[in-house]
Amino acid sequence: MDPFIARELEKLDPAVPFHATTDHLHHTWAKTFFSRPELYIRPRSIEEVQKLVTLARRCRRRLVTVGSGHSPSDLTCTSAWLVNLDDFNRILHVDTDTGLVTVQAGIRLYQLGPQLEEQGLTLDNLGSIDSQSIAGVIATGTHGSSLRHGLLSECIEGLSLVLANGELVRCSATDNPDLFRAALVSLGALGIVVEVTFKARRAFNVAWRQERYSLSKVLSEWSTGLWTSHEFVRVWWMPYEKGAIVWHADPTDKPLQAPPKNFYGGSLGYHIYHNLLALAQYVPRILPWVEWFVFGMQYGFRPGAVVTEAVQPSRQGLLMNCLYSQFVNEWALPLERGPEAITRLSAWLHGDLETARIPFSPKGLWVHCPIEVRVSDSTVSPKPRPFLDPTCRDGPTLYLNATLYRPYLRDPPCWKRYYEAFEWLMRDLGARPHWAKNFTTLDSTELQRLYKEDMDQWLKVRGEVDPQGMFLGEWHCRNLPVVAPLAEEAELPLVERERERRPLGARNAGDGVEWMGDRRWQHAPLSEIENSQKDKADELPADRSSSPSPPATEGSDESYEVLSKGEASILVHGA
Ligand SMILES: Cc1cc2nc3c(=O)[nH]c(=O)nc-3n(C[C@H](O)[C@H](O)[C@H](O)COP(=O)(O)OP(=O)(O)OC[C@H]3O[C@@H](n4cnc5c(N)ncnc54)[C@H](O)[C@@H]3O)c2cc1C
């Protein structure tokens, strides 16, 4: 460890552990990005989180919190300090009468589900997987597919965060409400979420059913029951087959019934598909045939020929197998624009530029299947809306997700051209991107235009709770108007900018990229760091300079605004 960090660490309470390692290689689940943080820290208590935040501030380091690393972009990459709450993963309180549950923020959904079930409870809604941490799910606006639900974070009643000054703050609809709305989609840029309180639902089983439709049937039923006849519905569109797999699920009292097994559906099908995708890297024109073969083997070659059904606990039945490493590019648009979006994209992929009205050539371009079609409706709940919620404010939302697999971690050749055209269409239809995913053609100016005052509000709260940019990195600077161009050095001294990205080049890393930050602390003279600490200490309100942080702010006076100017740490010797 850097001797300067070791020296600063000695000034903090030795009774509070500091669990850090120096040789961690971080990567996203899809191995799209890798980075080597200077320290990888796994706190086990709120005091440990407060201590590491204090230490980071004194050492002038940026902090990134990572959950399970399922966001496929460079959002969680850093060369500074990476904090992970996998050891901070307990259920703290369950009230079976009200359904209110409080958990430590690092708990993964697959850990939470079975423990809740023992208490007769479950989450209202799930996305495709349950690998994520609850804080990660909230931070990027994760959603499932149901018009009876909005974002998964709809069930959240309150959050506790450790801010850049080390202060622990609670927020909810009534307590620090602006902070709550900002923290509901925080993108990791507000502080470290340490506890989450949510309202669980009575545990339920779902009866699900899956069958093949023609695309014309999907479009003709679009407004007449496709999305409204069942609580949970998702559609996998097969663009070359002009067909779709329609899956729907409802709560049921029927007895459990395991999903049927067939000889192809398990590991045989998995490996055949993977190798066909790998072959298509060299001969992309086979992709329509791959789609026909793989989806035909799995779901039948004709609409209605094979119907798959099962009854499972919702925590299992709502999930799906996402197979291989992938790029995902998902956008939220008004549900009523779905038929137009699908018709134009379909026309483009089939070379009909007149219908497509997309100003890019699809010549020689072949893409992967499925394009995921999902829905949500965040207008049904009276709960406060996250400032950065990408769903529609005034009606149901459609999510279109252009998935591209990366067989054996190799990027598909169509990647950049496909996403350029897809994103162009999405923007033309007034869509907004899912924050966690691989969108590339937007910048902070356009995202500001898409969010207007909501973005201003989010930025205001963010600036108040983290005025030095301790929780900001290149991803935030690229996509959010966090700072005026060229001003960040002075305004946000702790922000981490990207120095370079290059192929990792390691065995088993495929085309994964190593992201490298600017490590600006290496260039700051020690005297500057020490002065900046002195300045900060001098700013402390007299009555706070050496007292420990209180467990939470009281009332709803948004008191973090005041505290962010000073240090609320756990010093023993002072500095
Ligand atoms: C296979 C797969 C399937 C997916 N399915 C869906 C889906 O169905 N629906 C959907 O909407 N999305 C889906 N996603 C996206 C995924 O839900 C989000 O990327 C989610 O944010 C991942 O959670 P995580 O715990 O991995 O967070 P990470 O990816 O590790 O982090 C995401 C963000 O959360 C922040 N963060 C994490 N923990 C904390 C904390 N304690 N305090 C403050 N900030 C924190 C990070 O700093 C970062 O900004 C999927 C992704 C994959 C790879």
UniProtKB/TrEMBL annotation:
Transmembrane region(s):
none
- Offer an example of a GO molecular function term for this protein: FAD binding
**Pathway where this protein functions:** Cofactor biosynthesis; D-erythroascorbate biosynthesis; dehydro-D-arabinono-1,4-lactone from D-arabinose: step 2/2
Q: What is its EC number?
A: 1.1.3.37
Q: Which residues lie within the region annotated Disordered? A: 524-575
Q: Which reaction does it catalyse?
A: D-arabinono-1,4-lactone + O2 = dehydro-D-arabinono-1,4-lactone + H2O2 + H(+)
Q: Which cofactor does it need?
A: FAD
Localization: Mitochondrion membrane
The main enzyme category here is: oxidoreductase
Task: Kindly state which keywords UniProt assigns to this record, in alphabetical order.
Answer: FAD, Flavoprotein, Mitochondrion, Oxidoreductase
Residues of the FAD-binding PCMH-type domain: 33-203
Annotated GO CC locations: mitochondrial membrane
- What SUPFAM superfamilies does this protein's entry cite? FAD-binding/transporter-associated domain-like (SSF56176)
Biased composition (Basic and acidic residues) is annotated at 531-542
- Oxidoreductase keyword on record: yes
Domain of life assignment: Eukaryota
Protein family per UniProt: Belongs to the oxygen-dependent FAD-linked oxidoreductase family.
Please report the name of this protein according to its UniProt entry. D-arabinono-1,4-lactone oxidase
Organism, by scientific name, is Penicillium oxalicum (strain 114-2 / CGMCC 5302)
